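Bumping with the actual sequence this time:
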Amino acid sequence: MPVLVAIALGCLLSCGSIWTAGLLATRVAGLPWSVRYTSGAAIYSLLIFSLLQGHAGYVQAFWLLGGALGFAAWRFPAAMWTPPPPHLPHGSLRVPRLICCGILTLYAGLYLVYAVAPEIQPDAIAYHLRIVADYVRAHGFTGKSAFFDVMPQPVEMMFVPAFSAGAHSAAKLVHLGLLVSAAATVREIARELGLAESSGWSAAVLFFVAPVCGVAGSAAYTDAGLAAAAFAVVYLLVRWDRTREPWLLAFASMDAALCYSVKQTFGWVAIIAFVFVAARAREWRRPAAFAVVVLAFVAPWMVRAYLLTGNPFAPFLSASGLDTQLARSFSAFRPGFDWLGAPWNYAVHGGNQGVVGPVFLLMPLALVGIRRRATAWMLAATALLTVPILANTGTRFLMPMLGPAAIAMASVLPAPAAVAIAVRQAATAWPDVVDLYAKDEWRLGELPWEAALRLEPEKAFLERMIPGFAVTHLIERETLPGARILTFTGVPEAYLDRDFLTYWQSGPGSRFSDGLIFALDSQGGNARTYTWRAGGGVEVVAGSEFRVVDTRPASNLAWRNQLPGQAFRFQLPGDLVVWPSDARIAFRGPAPTDGSEFRIDLRRDATAAIRKAGYKHILIPIGEGPFAPLGRDLLRHADEWGVRPQGVSGDRWLFQIS
């Protein structure tokens, strides 16, 4: 029971602070509660950013901030909001509203059970909550510059106070709160467009119970926050276009900035919102003010990224090529993406990490009402919010377009039909039913009510639900808290207080993995030394692929791979060591005086470089995968590598660098 109390307090700390921040920000504006909540999320995330930047991220400081926000909201009450009158007579609303409210309540209770249970979703335990746990332990930002660490993290900022009080499950409840807010805003958009109440309620159901929304929203992901921000932008712009109240644009720009900060590819939302404001305002002051507020809210994250990497848009638009590699892996332009089968796969079959539900196959029906302003606008919003899927085809990246799509569908249907498709969506989205038609593994599994109530011990639940979770016991047993570990396999980092460097997430990790593979491939082979006794410099041109093993005098060329046609300048006099010895190389300038061969073994050099960087342990699989041969060689020739096997969990071995 004390665990559940801590979880509830952590959720109250973050969600209550978000709500009061939203009340204060919108005190002069009459807005729906969900839009206020989203605006509060944008502000609260920057307040937590400021505390972490000043290394004041203590739980006492979070409570003090929450108390101050609550007192200020009580002392300066916000303007009341009066919803527009219903489109149909009150009596005709009762049955559709009762049915939809019943569905929403049922699914909210279902998601609550999953959210209170320990976190098991892969991205949450690999980096979302790992980042949060790092900040909670350090009481501030850590200065890491790995791929996910340099991204903007506004939702993680909201997780930090909750995590500091109630750990993983409290952070999950904060994200569930954002999902509830997003669903409520869908209904408010329909109201603002003048649609029937049945359309708004049905659209909220279609979005909220979509299987991908359930699994993402009940986990410590960020996609519900993105959907809530995108829907708030749509609501505010639709209302501004009707009323021309200038303060609506201020809140829209805050939420548009939040879209970029949650997922940088959704900076697209800020761009299209700016274009909309410029086109409808027909003067420059309002779009200019909109752009200024957006930049003000994203600037802290861009400055932080610049200080860590020299690139304000990191980890994208960088020279590392890492973003290009990811684009090839996940974009809709990769060879394996099925354009023709995409609608069926996203709605029913799966294969892109989740499904949205079979009802969304009816989306073309919305074209019937394309001449109606409300339907046309929602179809346009749907199309525009689908564009970022080109960069990452994961189904959860469709969540921001599901709200407008649901409104567009419901807007062309009479009340009984709109409620009928909501009921159909609810029936086909129940976890046991999804198992019958979706092949995708990323969906809600068994109902973890015993784990949620902590009747099943957390460790036992995690070991049962997370493949390979037992590796945490090996790491805890063989390494000290804070130990730095280079890993070539997935690890539930959110449950460990160790400093992991995943091989592909940063420049150092890529260099270390490349060096180990080079040492493995080259050992026992012949290298060649080229020596110059005099001269100012020479241009070295690769006729075939080769590696620079060493250079004297010292330079940054060591261990660099050179491809045919590439060239570099080498300062003379000095020695240039390359592998293999029979590599074809041309020299533009003085010819070397010597070209002797010798056998090389760089295995200890590779591990020594890792040790010198502060990483004393290597975790690597030996069974399957691209690094398994390296792992097997580390195990067979530990002395040659300069490592000591510390233990094994499954096929993953932990080594200590001597």
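The tokens above came from a reply further down the thread. The chain has a mean pLDDT of 93.
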